[in-house]
Task: inverse folding
DNA sequence: TCTCATCCTATTGTCCGACAAATAAACCGC
DNA sequence: GCGGTTTATTTGTCGGACAATAGGATGAGA
C-alpha cells in the first residue's frame, strides 16, 4: 500500500536547502516542520482548527509516524500547535506563537509577507537596536569593536556582490548586539538574520536609497560606538533603521504592484498609495492580513 | 533489565506541575525536555559537549527512545541542542539558544538565576515595555483599554493574595503589549509571564517598596494610556520597571546572603554590596555566571 | 615514520507495528 | 429530557529493526 506519491509531497526530488538556522542537508522531521510551519503561517489550517490526523498526514506526506511526530514537536515547541488525545492537533492562536523564533519568522515571511508584518518587525528593530547601539558604545570591548569595523569594511568591499554584502550587513548588526553582552539581545540577532535573509530572498536585493547612503550611515554608527558616544549611537542607529524600513516598504509595494498588474487587476486598492515612509501607521490595521503572494 | 531506578530519575512519584506554557498534566516528552532543559541551562553538559547517547539516556530516565527523541526535538527547536549521526547530541553554544523562548527562560531561572541574567532580562523589559506603553497610548482600542483598567483594579482588589496579584500584574503588562497590535510585542508578553512566574516562585513574593507604591505607578501608567499621552506613558512605564528591577535585585541579594550565611561562608565576595539599584552596570560582567542556588 | 585509503563500528535517522490512555461523542436506561 | 455508561477515535508511549552517516581504527604503501 501507499505506492508512490499522492499530492503536495516532496519526497526526494527537492533538495532545496532554503531555511535559516537549519543546515543544507536537513533531516526529514525538519523538512516536515518547515513544510507544515509555512503552511500554518500562511493560514492553511486557520488557528483553532485541527490538522489532519497523524495517520492521514503520514499517508499524505509519505513519512513514518515517528518522523511526523518529531516534526510536530518542533512546531509545538514554538507554540504553533498543540496536540490532545482524541481531539487531534490544533493550530494555536497566533498570539501564542513565539514570533521571536527565527524559524517562525522565516516561515511567516516565506508564506505571507504582508505589509503589516514587516512593519511590525521593523518596529521592534527600531525599538531594540538603537538601545543596543547605545549599550554597545558603553560596554563593547576593543576586539568586539574591531569586529564591527571589519564587518563595515566588508560591506564596503562587497558593495558589488549582493550576497556577500548581506552577510557583512548581518554581521555588522549582530556584532553590535553581541557587544551589549546581554544574552537576550544576542538572541535577537538570530531574528534579524532570519528576517533579513528571507526579505533578501524576497528580491529587494538593491534599495531605493543609493548604496553609498546606506554605507555612510553604517559608518557613522560604527564611529560613534568606537568613540563611546552612546546617545549619538542611539540616534544614528534609529536613523539607519528608518531608512531601511522605507526601502523594504518600497520593495513590497512595487512587488505587489507588479503582481496586481500581471494579474490584470488594477482596482482602487492600490491606486492611492503614497511614496512610502509615511502612511504605515494609519493603514497598518487594514494592511495587516493582506497576503501579497501566492497560495 | 532496567529494574527500578538509578539516579536523578523522577519516574512516577513527581506529579509536580511546575512549568510555564505547559499544562499541569504534561506529557512525557515535555517532562523530559524540561528535565534536560533545566540541566543544560544549569550547565551540566557544558556547551560544546555531547549528551549521553540516546540508548543510555533511555535507560537512565527509563523512557522509550521515541519519547526521548520527541523531547530532544523540543530542545532542538529552541536551539539548545543539535544531533548528528555518529557524533551524538551536542549542546549548542549559548549564543545560539533562543532566549526569547518562554521555556528556555523558565529553565534558566529555575536552574541558575544569576544576577547578570535577571539584569539582562529587566534591561530588555526596560527597552521594550516603555515603547509598548507609548504605542498602546497611541493605538489601543477602547475595549483593550478597558481590559487594562480591569487588570489594574484586580491588582488593587487582590493586594492581599500574592498569587492573584501576580496574575493581575501579568495581565496588566500583557494587555498593554497586546494593545500595540504588534505581533512581536505580543509574543514578548509570554516571555514576561514566564520570567515573572519563575521569579515569583523564587520567593520574592513581596517587595522592598510598599505595595501602594507599586500600585500607584501602575495606575498612572494606565491613566496616561487612557488619555493617549504617549510620551508620559513611556516615561512612567520606564519608572515602573526601574523600581521593579530594584525589588528583584534586593530579593536575589538577600537570597544569596541567606544562602551564604547558612553555609557559614562570609568572605569578601558579598560584604560590600550596596543597597542595590546602582552598581548593576559596573559589576555585571563578574556577576554574570555566578550561580546563586543549589546544584 | 608518515600518509592515505579502507574498513569497522558506534550513533542517530527513519520505519514499522502494537498497545495504553484519554476523551469526545454516541448511546441507553430512566 | 437527562445523567450515567459505553464506544470509538486519536494521540501517547513502547519496543524492535534496519539504514545512513561519519569518526576512528586499521593496514598498506611510500
Result:
Amino acid at each position: 500500500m501507499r505506492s508512490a506519491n499522492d499530492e503536495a509531497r516532496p519526497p526526494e526530488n527537492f533538495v532545496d536547502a532554503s531555511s535559516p538556522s537549519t543546515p543544507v542537508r536537513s533531516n526529514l522531521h525538519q523538512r516536515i516542520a518547515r513544510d507544515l510551519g509555512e503552511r500554518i503561517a500562511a493560514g492553511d489550517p486557520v488557528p483553532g482548527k485541527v490538522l489532519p490526523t497523524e495517520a492521514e498526514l503520514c499517508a499524505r506526506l509519505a513519512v513514518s509516524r515517528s518522523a511526523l511526530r518529531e516534526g510536530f514537536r518542533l512546531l509545538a515547541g514554538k507554540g504553533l500547535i498543540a496536540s490532545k488525545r482524541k481531539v487531534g492537533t490544533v493550530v494555536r492562536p497566533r498570539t501564542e506563537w513565539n514570533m521571536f523564533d527565527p524559524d517562525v519568522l522565516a516561515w511567516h515571511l516565506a508564506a505571507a509577507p504582508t505589509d503589516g508584518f514587516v512593519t511590525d518587525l521593523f518596529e521592534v528593530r527600531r525599538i531594540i537596536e538603537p538601545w543596543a547601539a547605545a549599550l554597545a558604545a558603553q560596554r563593547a570591548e576593543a576586539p568586539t569593536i574591531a569586529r564591527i569595523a571589519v564587518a563595515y569594511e566588508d560591506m564596503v568591499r562587497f558593495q558589488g556582490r549582493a550576497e556577500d554584502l548581506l552577510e557583512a550587513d548581518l554581521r555588522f548588526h549582530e556584532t553590535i548586539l553581541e557587544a551589549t553582552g546581554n544574552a537576550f539581545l544576542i538572541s535577537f540577532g538570530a531574528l534579524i538574520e532570519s528576517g533579513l535573509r528571507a526579505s533578501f530572498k524576497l528580491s529587494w536585493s538593491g534599495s531605493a536609497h543609493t548604496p553609498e547612503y546606506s554605507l555612510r550611515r553604517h559608518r557613522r554608527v560604527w564611529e560613534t560606538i568606537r568613540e563611546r558616544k552612546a546617545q549619538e549611537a542611539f540616534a544614528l542607529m534609529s536613523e539607519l533603521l528608518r531608512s531601511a524600513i522605507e526601502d523594504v516598504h518600497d520593495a513590497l509595494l512595487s512587488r505587489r504592484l507588479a503582481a496586481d498588474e500581471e494579474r490584470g487587476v488594477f482596482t482602487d486598492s492600490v491606486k492611492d498609495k503614497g511614496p512610502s515612509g509615511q502612511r504605515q501607521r494609519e493603514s497598518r490595521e487594514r494592511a495587516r492580513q493582506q497576503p501579497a503572494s501566492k497560495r
